[in-house]
Amino acid sequence: MYVPAPPTGVLWGRLPTRSTPPVAVVDSGAVVTIDTISHEGVLEDQGQDPLGYFTGLGVAPGDVLSDAVEVARRTPHDGPGPHVVTGPIAVRGAEPGHVLAIDVLDLQLRVPYGVVSNRHGKGALPGEYPEAWESRADLRRWFNAGGEISVFTPARPGPGGLVGALPAGQGEVTFPLAPFLGIMGVARDTDALVDSVPPTDAGGNLDINELGVGSRLYLPVRVPGAMAFAGDPHMAQGDGEVALTAMEGSLRATLRLTSIPPGGPAPRAAFAAPFAETPTHWLPIGLSDPDGAEGGGNRTELDLAMKDAVRRAMAFLVQDRGMAEPVAYAYLSAAADFQVSQVVDRTTGVHGLIRKADFGVA
């Protein structure tokens, strides 16, 4: 099934809830191809005019997405977040107590460019940047019309695949593209408005760069049909996402959506909180505030997210791998890595990386 992103098929700044009507209904195990739209170029501080914004940066008019233009014109920005989210998609048979498995089968760039932004009061160093640059005439080229920083980043073929390119002195710096969806989630069991920014126990804006092609994200189902959604497409992101955004750029995602009942083929740890895996690793996911209500990316938030990630990792090793608690704790200290997913979404994220090969899993 193909799910486009017309103005009536997306939400802007908020996430689906139990009362949001689905844009599509699929069977469990269905493969869906979803168009996602980056909020960069659509936002008000960039003129809410993707065509004018990107052509002003040298992009050919034919390389500006018509659905992004229409969303900017016709979709109400009626949530506090910046993100454009496609969905929700109802999955037949998914019920509270199940887990929804989202397999990422393919991610294709819809445009040959992205944007990396830093906005006032946000990022890892709020109050320092971009304020320190405001009087610098030599840096004005990177301030957008709303006074925020937006760094246009072309994508092009490189020696080992697609790369992003940024100016560096008299030359440039390039880095490999590794597309993933910053937002994948299921609806929370509420009728209240759900901000698109903080990730929660229902997924959402997790910003975990390991969730590229070949990964699987498990999410506890909260409402009938699960009501899955996707957005915040990224072309590349470093752990931490320190400026505020990744290299944001629209993607076409092909996903498999599978509802797994209790006792089914999913880690037991996944029935309590988001959990992911790649072909090589299991990823317990820690959040400083799973309810998504507070948070600010400070040291306390990072400590809370780290503790949550370690507890999730412990639960997985004990419940799913049969390890004794002291041995599991020792293994995590000796052999597992914990990475900062992001520190910029109010609710801070840390994810663990547990090698499957250590357990003889190919």
Describe this structure in words.
The protein is mostly beta strands. It has 3 domains: 2-113 and 177-267, Jelly Rolls; 117-175, no CATH class; 269-357, Acetamidase/Formamidase-like domains (Endonuclease I-creI, Roll). 13% of the residues lie in helices and 35% in strands. The chain has 4 helices and 22 strands. The protein has helices spanning 50-55, 66-74, 299-319, 325-335; strands at 2-3, 10-12, 14-15, 24-26, 30-35, 84-91, 99-109, 113-118, 149-158, 161-168, 171-176, 180-186, 194-195, 203-205, 216-220, 228-236, 247-248, 251-260, 275-277, 281-287, 337-342, 349-355. The strands form 4 sheets. The chain has a 9-stranded mixed β-sheet. β19 and β20 (281-287) form a beta hairpin. α3 (299-319) crosses α4 (325-335). The chain is globular. The two termini are 31 Å apart. InterPro entries: FmdA_AmdA. This is Acetamidase/formamidase family protein.
